Amino acid sequence: MTNDVPMRLTPAPADPTITFFEAVGGEDTFRLLVDEFYAGVADDPLLRPMYPEEDLGPAAERLRLFLIQYWGGPSTYQEQRGHPRLRMRHAPFTVGPAERDAWLRHMRHAVETLNLPADQERTLWDYLERAAHFMVNTME
Length: 140
What we know:
By secondary structure, the protein is mainly alpha-helical. The chain has 7 helices and no strands. It has helices at 20-23, 27-41, 57-70, 76-81, 86-90, 97-113, 118-135. α2 (27-41) packs across α3, α2 packs across α6 and α6 (97-113) packs antiparallel against α7. The N and C termini lie far apart (72 Å). Belongs to the truncated hemoglobin family. Group II subfamily. Pfam families: Bac_globin (PF01152).
């Protein structure tokens, strides 16, 4: 007798109870993303001066916690730092098109190293790209 289960021609719909955070691999994925991103920032002459700490560790932790919370993980970022207020927190720094493009270059590389399925990569990248454009505070 043959199997009576119909063959699927399209993928099963995503489980609406699973967050993007969980779907992409949780904290480990965001740790890899942020670590790879800051490895590039560490040697970037345009971006590195924007990070006042001697060690990029505190900035990496803030970004990691923010992204984890944004994508549906624990709300540790808000518990520790309050509302993200991204533009306000970046206001003391000159963020022009060159800084935005450098940030995007390092982040693009970091996203690609995750080897996410195309739809997840596109979702993540679309957000990061919009966020980078939103941070621009000067056209100089």
